[in-house]
Amino acid sequence: MGDVRTSGDEQTVVVIEDDPAIADLLDLYLRDAGFRVLLAPTGERGLDLVERDDPVLVVVDVGLPGIDGFETVRRLRMRSRVPVLFLTARDGETDRVLGFELGGDDYVTKPFSPRELVARVRAILRRGEPPPTGERLSAGEGIVVDLSRREVRTATGAVPLAAREFDLIVYLAQHRGQALTRRQLIDGVWGPEWEGDDRTVDVHVRQLRKKIGDDLPLATVWGTGYRLG
Q: Is residue 167 within 8 Å of residue 189, measured between CB atoms?
């Protein structure tokens, strides 16, 4: 399997997958969807491609030779906030939680539908598109959510958030003061077609509290979900 395949000047997606059959399948479907695809059989090679080509999204298999997918993303997050979709044969909750805590934006288990994976890639990228105006929201005293820059700022500066974490705080800020169920948050942030575990919301809330700190007025509403403010 060649480690790099390209097609024109489309948006670039890096696929880090050591199984040639799966890599070829992803290459075919993503290119048919209009993406430029770069293939890497190892985490090290994938990181090199991300550094060199600045992709819009990375698909990474967890069970890679050498450094695994989790370690690859851990290293990736030291240099880039590019959206990440984990692809893996592991379907345990512990692995899903770890993937999201590392800054993953979605988690697809094998066997998978290539069309569904392409749809998830497109959904992640749509969430990353800035709004047409420079609208700002307040997420609490001194906490500003800048939609045009996709940035959260506090009194101490910008807070680095994964794409899904940012989308979640935007949705909470847009519904400030309302008690939202986990299902409402899933539908509003992940989309109504998303079929993952609702407890994914808990993982992302935990990350927001950890990264932004005690000034974030994000309360747990027992038996319901969460409320900002």
A: yes
Beta strands across the sheet bearing 157-159: 136-140, 143-146, 151-154, 157-159
Stretch among 26-30, 148-152, 195-199 having the lowest mean pLDDT: 195-199
- Cα Rg of the chain, angstroms: 18
Please name every residue paired with 37 in a beta bridge, in sequence order, or none if there are none: 13
Report the distance separating Cα 116 and Cα 225, nearest Å. 28
pTM for this model (two decimals): 0.62
Pairing of strands 106-109, 136-140: unpaired
CA–CA distance, 126 with 167 (Å, rounded to integer): 11
pLDDT digits (tens, 9 = 90+) for 139-194: 888 888 888 788 898 888 888 888 888 899 998 988 888 888 988 898 888 887 77
CATH of domain 136-228: 1.10.10.10
Q: What is the DSSP letter of 189?
A: I
Q: What is the CATH number of domain 12-127?
A: 3.40.50.2300
Q: Tell me how far apart the alpha carbons of residues 135 and 148 are, in angstroms, rounded to a whole number.
A: 7
Alpha helices in 13-113 (DSSP H): 20-32, 43-53, 69-76, 93-101
Instruction: Return the number of other C-beta atoms located less than 10 Å from residue 223's C-beta.
Output: 7
pLDDT value of residue 71: 93
> What is the phi/psi pair of residue 75, to 5°?
-70, -35
DSSP 142: T
The ranges assigned to domains in the chain are 12-127, 136-228
Contact yes or no for 150/134 (Cβ under 8 A): no
DSSP 78: T
